[in-house]
Description:
Two copies of one chain form a homodimer.
Chain A: H1 4-9, H2 17-26, E1 31-33, E2 38-40, E3 49-54, E4 57-62, E5 68-74, H3 84-87, E6 93-96, E7 100-105, H4 107-116, H5 118-144, H6 147-164, E8 168-169, E9 172-174, H7 179-186, H8 190-202, E10 206-209, E11 212-215, H9 218-225
Antiparallel strand pairs in A: 1-7, 2-6, 3-7, 4-5, 4-6, 8-9, 9-11, 10-11
Chain A binds a DNA duplex (30 and 30 nucleotides) through residues 146-147, 178-180, 188-192, 194-195, 197-198, 210.
Amino acid sequence: MFNPLIRKLSIASDFTESDNRALNDVIVEPHSVAPKQDIIRTGDRPENVHLVMDGIACRYKIMPNGDRQIVAFLLPGDFCDLHVAILGEMDHGIATLSPCKMIEIPRTTINDLTENYPRITRALWWATLVDEAILREWIAGIGQRMADKRIAHLFCELYLRLKTVGQTEDHSFTLPITQQELADALGISIVHANRMLMDLRTRNIMVMRGKHVKILNYDALKAFAEFSPDYLHLERRSENGNGQRSVSDKGR
Amino acid sequence: MFNPLIRKLSIASDFTESDNRALNDVIVEPHSVAPKQDIIRTGDRPENVHLVMDGIACRYKIMPNGDRQIVAFLLPGDFCDLHVAILGEMDHGIATLSPCKMIEIPRTTINDLTENYPRITRALWWATLVDEAILREWIAGIGQRMADKRIAHLFCELYLRLKTVGQTEDHSFTLPITQQELADALGISIVHANRMLMDLRTRNIMVMRGKHVKILNYDALKAFAEFSPDYLHLERRSENGNGQRSVSDKGR
DNA sequence: CGTAACGTTGAGCACGGTCAAGGTCCGTGG
DNA sequence: CCACGGACCTTGACCGTGCTCAACGTTACG
């Protein structure tokens, strides 16, 4: 079976055959979840670890007035709650946006992996750190970017993230979310989200129609969003802390 | 020597004498850093782990137009870069805001701790997960809250975080940051930050004058900010997934 | 083929940004 | 000791991004 998890984690570690076998053993038959279903709610103490295999889910917080802020999109290969056992209660909820295929992994399996497979452990670490880096970038985006650039930036991010798990074709991909959900992720109103999407469409930069996203001019989108993919850490890091930097590169 | 690190981590684990000794050994004589100095810059690959012992630092991102977004405040007991070695390059910078006392811990020491002290390892895990939870709450705040409530919410958070490391007196604390830095953290302009602070002052809720913050009416501040401290995970979690929740508490 | 969810568009307005000026505080040097 | 300068705080006026309300169009699905 095709495995977005292995595909994603391979960025962080060179897996051995034994690693791959261990990871494949984790991937049992996924179960389907309907769209817009809660997987985990605020205050829960989940027993198993949830892994998205197909579809799109999100982390979200509900504000006292009922408004929702989506704080992360969970794509195939993403864990929903790898480490929450340490924290205790969930401080946010997780819900599907589209129909999803999910796998529940017993915590004991995770413990086994982290005790016996150092390369996998390192890759899991890497994944959680990338999640954190994405959170920081979202803060910067919501705090500083205008709404139109915020949208453009998010689509650059989603494009690259989907591409690493093989869910893109050319510069098109399926994104089964509504404009309301997009707005909730970006901290803007649905009306404004719609207008800014129309704008990007009119300027022949990208089109989001229904569930299908087509980036018409990726360079223009990147330039407009002032997008730099560094924070996604998709480049294989060099092993010993002195990679691409030239010695003379003191400034910066 | 008083140790904000131990004080903070004790929330997550019951340390043994041996744990405490190991942690105390880490705390060598800190060195002083002047305010507004970069500790780590974007693109760096830090060798040692940096720990704040006194003063306030921040994580920040610089946008292409020069605007700055502060994505985290680093208080005494907070690590700056516990795990970046796994990621490779820093995707953000870290700088002092006030004069700080910092400790640099060799990565080998961290490795030793995580290999030989399971309770410390768990506590370090807990600390990084709390950092992540704070990032999520900031996204929700910047995305959904009005500027005045955003300020109030941040002060509730800082109050509690400083309290856990013994840096508060009654409802007062020292916060050596400027209004510009506050604005950069909240994603608002300095002018607006100033006006909203005046507002909170006028309403006898809290006062920030220079480096001193005094919460005049904590209940009013909490209510106004709609602040719930859950995301800070300051309560000792119960050991086996079924703590305070009553069995009949199905909803929610 | 009807209905509900989703998308689109317009009008008016408010939160908060920008620009600009003046005030206060504090450290430094004459 | 006082003068100066720089960093920080405060306030006013104006304006723009983006919100709210409201209506209408479109798509999907039972």
